[in-house]
Design brief:
By secondary structure, the chain is an all-alpha fold. It is built from one helix and no strands.
Length: 50
């Protein structure tokens, strides 16, 4: 009889460690997006309007 803990998930890896590389990339993209929005808003609202 086999235990359920012996099976390897279909996603590969097998050790159950989270994918920190993907998380790091997602967080970096989120920071870049927020920075771009901030710089764009600053440039838009700081220009004097005629």
């Amino acid at each position: 009889m086999r235990d359920a803990d012996d099976e390897v998930p279909a996603g590969g890896g097998g050790d159950g460690s989270p994918k920190f590389g993907r998380l790091l990339i997602a967080l970096a993209l989120a920071v870049l997006l927020i920075g771009a929005i901030t710089l764009g808003a600053e440039a838009y609202y700081s220009n004097p309007r005629p």
